[in-house]
From TrEMBL, chains A, B:
Keyword Nucleus: yes
Residue ranges of domain NTF2 in the record: 8-122
Alphabetical list of Gene3D superfamilies matching this protein: 3.10.450.50
InterPro entries on file: NTF2 (IPR045875), NTF2-like_dom_sf (IPR032710), NTF2_dom (IPR002075), Nuclear_transport_factor_2_euk (IPR018222)
Native organism: Durio zibethinus (Durian)
Oligomeric and partner information: Interacts with RAN1.
GO cellular component, one term: cytoplasm
Subcellular localization(s) per the UniProt record: Cytoplasm; Nucleus; Nucleus envelope
Function field: Has a role in nuclear-cytoplasmic transport of proteins and mRNAs. Facilitates protein transport into the nucleus. Interacts with various nucleoporins and with Ran-GDP. Could be part of a multicomponent system of cytosolic factors that assemble at the pore complex during nuclear import.
Protein name (Swiss-Prot/TrEMBL): Nuclear transport factor 2-like
Pfam families: NTF2
Residue ranges crossing the lipid bilayer per the database entry: none
CDD domains assigned: NTF2 (cd00780)
Lineage: Eukaryota, Viridiplantae, Streptophyta, Embryophyta, Tracheophyta
Amino acid sequence: MEELIDLVGKAFVDHYYHLFDNDRPALSSLYQPSSMLTFEGQKIQSIEDITAKLNQLPFDQCLHVISTIDSQPSSFTGGIVVFVSGSLQLPGEEHHLWFSQMFHLIPLLEGHFFVQNDIFRLNYG
Amino acid sequence: MEELIDLVGKAFVDHYYHLFDNDRPALSSLYQPSSMLTFEGQKIQSIEDITAKLNQLPFDQCLHVISTIDSQPSSFTGGIVVFVSGSLQLPGEEHHLWFSQMFHLIPLLEGHFFVQNDIFRLNYG
């Protein structure tokens, strides 16, 4: 069971950041009206507002490189909490931005999940 | 409602790290048999094993300094996800260790919560 959780968490993370780096508007498919994003302390809710925030970030191209993925089953039946750390590389920037992000994934039909909780923070220090 | 979530998240975080830094064995009161901790990638479950891990960390004294706390309601009725970043200061160490940690809190009676999900990572880079 632990291995399945880890596989599902990793598959989600790969999918999420692949979309982010290659087809950012398509991230809207991973959220639902109840979804919440806290981005660097800014609270955002709903598919439309979350999608707008992600698409309006002040860079067009980016590359996420994942360092760690930790997944656990959540209390919500079939749900998963996923904790990610990694770096964000922007064009023309010599230094990477390090970040941590957590997702609470809730199951939909047929093995799909949506993001209920999403919290993103750049790491300083 | 957002403000209440933030107050509850902050109160929990203050309580958790106060216990960690001053009475680490008492952290056992915040976990339940179903609780899960992933500590630097190591998966641990149950009050006893989580408590043992925390008490056997290779330092006695420490001081957590919190940088950010982000809280959201979870799908579990009354539950809260809390995302923390900060630094860990150890005696005799000039440099701080930066960390990120997430908690999924589930309500008990009378305004108390227990930690269902706990994921801790040191930040590198």
